[in-house]
Amino acid sequence: MRISAPVAYILLYTALYAAFGVASPFWPRFFETRGLSPQEIGIVLAAAKVTRLLAGPTLGCLQIEQVRCALLSQFVLHWPPHGPPLYCGCTRSRCCFS
49-62 b/e with 16+ CB inside 10 Å = b? Predict the structure, then answer.
């Protein structure tokens, strides 16, 4: 039996959030057994939140740049021989935040 894409998507996110919900109350105790102070535990948990917060927009921006460059390169391939040169400006180090 094949599961449809929307149902698979819902099941995936249900499993991810359920796993995070089950594990998250135990993270502070886990880090405490590793010898971290309460301040260090707060920094570790905050760093994880900040990483998740910034990863989505950053990766989305890079994907948009790649798609834009791919579309422009296809346009350039079909440009007349003496047409204007186009440069998309896509670099891996440049993103929406710069």
Answer: eeeeeeeeeeeeee
Q: Are 38 and 77 in contact (CB under 8 A)?
A: no
For residues 15 and 23, the answer to whether their CB atoms sit within 8 Å is no
In order of 22, 32, 40, 70, 79, the CA distances from 28 in angstroms are: 13, 6, 10, 45, 59
Q: Convert the pLDDT of each residue in 46-62 to its tens digit.
A: 998 898 888 878 877 77
- The tens digit of pLDDT for each residue in 5-60 reads 999 999 999 999 999 899 989 999 999 999 999 999 999 989 988 988 888 788 77
User: C-alpha dihedral over 89, 70, 92, 56, to 10 degrees?
Assistant: 120
* CA separation for the pair 48, 30 (Å, rounded): 15
Any idea where the domains of the chain sit in the sequence?
5-58
